[in-house]
Fold:
Amino acid sequence: MHDSDVALVSGLEPGGDEWDVWLNLPIAAEMLDRPLAESDASVPVGARHALSWARSAGVGDGADVTVIEEVLRSREVFVEELFDALLDRLGFPEA
Structure:
């Protein structure tokens, strides 16, 4: 997380596949000097990887990939709220 504005979420699946997604895409695109459309295009793949990762952890059976995509495209003043929403939608129990 960077200054509560943007976050890079990374995961490693049991088979060794790595994945990552950005939270607060417009800020991430600006920070990375990439077009927003390019960052947005990666959302479906990132959502599928995140859901696969959650399922490999034993959660996420009831999760819907389109809901995960919505979270990845959402904006919040504090990115920590998006991180919590992502974990919730992936089916992880509340801490």
Summary: The longest strand covers residues 7-12. The mean pLDDT is 94. Strands lie at 7-12, 18-23.
